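Hey, quick one: can you model this chain's 3D structure?
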Amino acid sequence: MTDGTGAGSGGDTAAPGPGRVRQLRLVVEADDFDAALTFFRDVLGMPEQESYSGEGGAEVRILDAGRATLELSNPAQVRFIDRVETDGGRSDRIRVALEVADSAAVTDELVAAGAELEASARETPWRSVNGRVRAPAGLQLTIFQELD
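Sure thing. Here's the predicted structure for all 148 residues.
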């Protein structure tokens, strides 16, 4: 959670301009590339932006995930999140969180498409509804819906 003010330098109170980083891209190696592509592109609905093929069967697809942020949490916060969002589950060191319009429905849809349910969707103290699944390529996903 942020206070919405961004990071300033020194005593500068003006709204910060765009940062140096233009895009956050999560790069995932998927042993079953076709299954992962189908899951994220077709089931979850992440449109394909770019694709490249190379020698030796090399393939990459870049999927649009909307706005990207980097959420840094200390171990105490991660333990708190796990108590709130799961029934005793533990977060991976890196977990992908995807905002959707209806987290309960999307969580159910992802499980029906082969994801392993780690925690059913539930309301959190920070006014979101969060579910958790294990997706193809071993990614732990939090599917969340903001209520405010």
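One thing worth noting: The longest helix spans residues 33-43.
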